Protein: DUF1289 domain-containing protein
Amino acid sequence: MSSKTPSPCIGVCKFKRETHCIGCSMTKTQKSMFKTLKGEKYRRAFLTFVIHQQSALGRYRHWAPAYLKRCAKKGVSVDLP
Structure:
């Protein structure tokens, strides 16, 4: 089992909301940035940032269930705020 926090990406990847993905709220730059994060604490902090970004942007209620399903599939336990 992996303990590495997966990317907040849920596989939608359509950038229609002012350069933000309609699936996860990340911009293309943020998606690239997540891939460079080495430490688990940085990956978790980035995940928290994305959740706050989704809250500010609105219309991302679909994300949490999809992300938790993805984490479960990868065998990773994640507590979302």
User: Anything to note?
Assistant: The helical segments are 28-36, 40-57, 63-74. Residues 15-74 form one domain. The first helix runs from residue 28 to 36.
